[in-house]
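Q: My labmate handed me this sequence with no annotations at all. I'd like to see what the chain might look like in three dimensions before we decide whether it's worth expressing. Could you predict it?
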Amino acid sequence: MLFPKKVKHRKWQTGRKSPSRLARPDTRGTRLAFGSYALKATMPSRLTSNQIEAARKVLTRSTAKGGKLWIRVFPDWPITGKPAEVGMGSGKGDLKHFVFQVRPGRILFELDGVPEASAREYLRQAGAKLPMKTVIIARD
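A: Here is what I predict for the chain of 140 residues:
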């Protein structure tokens, strides 16, 4: 599972949850940089480290012999939660997991060194493990 080795602040403030702000297209990480095929997000969502790991396992099976895989996201946003049946007050909850906040247009994974038909199939399978709609793009 992916998580930061060291963080400056263990618990972050929640931040704004405006749907219009999250639906705004991303400006960074929107173009193919390393591979020939990529999985691109088309809607906003939060990716947990478990979901990234599930998609990574599907893709590493495809690239076992000769392909190369790049993971373009890293979960560094801490999510806290209080246990069940605990009263209000007494501070913020303990750290549960880390997430990456995905905005539309963000490239999540890139593949290279794999035939196009199999790359599209494996990226489709990896997209099925994620909680958002994705599209497969290829280098022009």
